[in-house]
Write a structure and sequence with these properties.
By secondary structure, the chain is of the alpha/beta class. Helices cover 45% and strands 15% of the residues.
């Protein structure tokens, strides 16, 4: 799938329908991972070569947010649209694929389990588990995560949904995908909180006009103002080049 460069991160030229078709038809014996980076993660990647490598070596790195969609359209890729992890989970739960959810705390995953059972009674969900709370430096080689993923691997789910904060989830997928024999890891971040009902999703019209960031900022100003300040600081420091080449990956 074709990719386009945005300050060093090569994200996939795709949209919800194409991403769904790609994953629905994917041979899950070929392991890999899918990233859903927002502008904050891409800003971090501009200063973190390993994180940028992780994003660029994925099966898919989808545009998660209007800024990336707008950038792709400015470059002439009019078919590009934001791909929501929340929407993708709900769409793939309706297929014959099997799923495992790894993320959140025990209370969040239990609420999520009940909501999904009620709304998708025929979904082939093999289980849920909560990872330990770790900082970024504690993820590589972590024995608890390794044991969890070994247990998950025995079930051979097609899709393993990872619901922890970014960029922790990107590092987790990078370090632990090589140990899998089957399945695709998908780092969907805070989507578990929306499925469980812990957080309220923004209205669709807010997302359509590209103001989801403002909606979230109003809800959690103390938590998000530093994040948005970091994005603005990075955007003004990292040069944009009109000579960046598009990339094609298999």
């Amino acid at each position: 799938m074709q990719r386009i460069d945005f300050i060093g991160t090569r994200f996939s030229i795709t949209n919800p329908e194409d991403a769904f078709r790609f994953l629905e038809g994917y041979d899950c014996t070929q392991t890999g991972y899918v990233c859903f980076p927002d502008l904050f993660v891409i800003s971090k990647a501009a200063e973190d070569p390993l994180l940028q490598k992780i994003l660029n070596n994925s099966l898919l790195t989808v545009p998660d947010g209007k800024p990336l969609e707008f950038w792709a359209k400015m470059k002439g890729y009019s078919q590009t649209r934001t791909v929501s992890g929340y929407w993708l989970i709900r769409s793939l739960l309706k297929t014959s694929h099997t799923h495992f959810f790894y993320g959140g705390n025990a209370e969040t995953t239990e609420r999520m389990r009940k909501n999904l059972m009620r709304e998708f009674p025929d979904a082939r969900i093999l289980g849920y588990a909560s990872p330990p709370f770790l900082n970024l430096l504690e993820i590589e080689g972590n024995g608890t995560i390794l044991k969890d993923l070994q247990d998950i691997a025995e079930l051979k789910p097609d899709f393993i949904w990872i619901g922890i904060s970014s960029p922790k989830q990107e590092y987790l997928m990078h370090f632990f995908t090589p140990g899998l024999q089957h399945g695709v890891l998908l780092g969907v971040g805070g989507v578990f909180d929306y499925i469980s009902g812990d957080h309220k999703k923004s209205p669709e019209w807010i997302k359509t006009i590209g103001l989801r960031w403002l909606y979230r900022m109003v809800q959690a100003p103390r938590r998000l103002w530093k994040k948005y300040h970091y994005i603005l600081r990075t955007m003004t420091r990292v040069p944009f080049s009109g000579k960046q080449k598009d990339h094609f990956v298999s």
